[in-house]
């Protein structure tokens, strides 16, 4: 159907030549323009050393602006880091929390947004993990859970296991009414779903590049609002955290005013390049358009697996669809079924609790229909 043609050009995704790739919630794929830009970086480094890499270092401000533009922020709000765990640690260690202060975290969080907060218990900070196994955290429940010393709410925009999506604006409104900072792990949404951090009221947000953002592994970014930035302690400074990084022995200078202070040392130039180049491609077609397409694919998939008697793993109270759908077929072992589908070219994630499917903006309805047909032959 023409109206459901993929917004991202399938010819730019070489993975489509050999696989039906439906696994972006695990690891995304590099678009050809991004891969070509990375090859150029490596060639420049190999043939010119610092002469080859310096132009990429000088482009870091532009890369941050590109990343920021995708979420409605400014380049000065962005730090390029290694991964989401590092970003969560920057925040967890940066808040001015005292013994007895409280952090709220859903118990179902992926470990990268759980362990950095749990580590605060060693400082007698209360980290309360809320049971959200049946229903996503709603603004109404958050209001009930907040205590006199609650200081931070940290959660994922989209759940990694079931694709459940939180109402960020609603949660932010409640959190801010109690002077609580709102931190969001957006790794399972950004790239496939449209988000404006200012409109949503998020104070800090981070995402790794290797999933829906279709960038390299080992690179992530952290957004910190200007208001929060001034309140965060810089727990892990480095040589590039200061105002003049080339004035090596000036110990009296202060920290640079923007979020790049949180990068500390030399950032991952090639990783930042991969993020920026893929986001340029996504923004050219419109991330909102990608979201509409991904939701259509998910709806087609949900209808197809339900017709085969599958049970969809889901929680109530979600704020709209995401790109993730997890299902299992009663009486069938999901790992064995997932392996069988992969042997036919359908790449998904399969665990004991089900098969997780996560299409992107270059996948098409024909691939979803082919997956359902292959599943039907085995169900």
Describe the 3D structure.
The model has no long low-confidence stretch (mean pLDDT 97). The protein is globular and about 70 Å long. The protein folds into two domains: 10-22 and 286-377, Aspartate Aminotransferase, domain 1 (Alpha-Beta Complex), CATH 3.90.1150.10; 37-284, Type I PLP-dependent aspartate aminotransferase-like (Major domain) (Aspartate Aminotransferase, domain 2, 3-Layer(aba) Sandwich). It contains 13 helices and 13 strands. Helix content is 36%, strand content 14%. The longest helix has 21 residues, at 287-307. α11 runs parallel beside α13.
Please give the largest β-sheet: 7 strands, mixed
The strand count comes to 13
Radius of gyration: 21 Å
CATH superfamily of the largest domain: Type I PLP-dependent aspartate aminotransferase-like (Major domain)
User: Which geometry do the CA atoms define?
Assistant: globular
Comma- or semicolon-separated keywords:
single chain; 379 residues; alpha/beta; Aspartate Aminotransferase, domain 1; Aspartate Aminotransferase, domain 2; 2 domains; seven-stranded mixed β-sheet; four-stranded antiparallel β-sheet; 13 helices; 13 strands
């Amino acid at each position: 159907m023409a109206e459901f043609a993929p917004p991202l050009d399938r010819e730019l995704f070489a993975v489509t030549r050999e696989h039906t790739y439906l696994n972006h919630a695990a690891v995304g794929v590099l678009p050809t323009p991004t891969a070509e830009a990375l090859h150029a970086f490596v060639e420049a480094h190999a043939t010119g050393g610092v002469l080859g890499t310096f132009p990429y270092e000088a482009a870091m401000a532009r890369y941050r602006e590109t990343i920021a533009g995708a979420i409605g922020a400014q380049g000065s709000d962005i730090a390029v880091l290694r991964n989401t765990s590092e970003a969560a640690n920057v925040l967890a260690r940066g808040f001015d929390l005292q013994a007895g202060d409280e952090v709220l975290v859903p118990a179902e969080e992926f470990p990268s947004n759980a362990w950095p907060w749990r580590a605060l218990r060693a400082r007698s900070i209360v980290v309360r993990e809320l049971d959200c196994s049946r229903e996503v955290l709603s603004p109404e429940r958050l209001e009930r859970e907040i205590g006199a010393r609650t200081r931070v709410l940290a959660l994922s925009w989209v759940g990694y296991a079931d694709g459940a999506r939180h109402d960020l604006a609603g949660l932010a409104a409640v959190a801010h009414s109690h002077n609580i900072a709102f931190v969001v792990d957006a790794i399972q949404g950004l790239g496939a779903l449209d988000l404006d951090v200012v409109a949503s009221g998020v104070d800090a947000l981070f995402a790794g590049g290797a999933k829906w953002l279709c960038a390299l592994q080992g690179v992530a970014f952290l957004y910190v609002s200007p208001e929060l930035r001034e309140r965060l302690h810089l727990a892990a400074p480095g040589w590039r955290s200061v105002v003049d990084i080339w004035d090596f022995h000036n110990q009296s200078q202060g920290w640079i005013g923007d979020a790049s202070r949180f990068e500390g040392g030399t950032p991952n130039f090639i990783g930042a390049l991969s993020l920026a180049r893929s986001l340029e491609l996504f923004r050219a077609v419109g991330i909102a358009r990608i979201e509409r397409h991904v939701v259509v694919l998910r709806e087609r998939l949900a209808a197809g697996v339900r017709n085969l008697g599958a049970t969809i793993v889901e929680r109530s109270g979600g704020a709209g669809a995401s790109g993730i759908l997890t299902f299992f077929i009663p009486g069938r072992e999901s790992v064995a079924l997932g392996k069988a589908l992969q042997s036919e070219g359908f790449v998904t994630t399969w665990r004991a609790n089900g098969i997780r499917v996560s299409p992107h903006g270059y996948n098409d309805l024909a691939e979803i229909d082919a997956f359902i047909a292959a599943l039907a032959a085995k169900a």
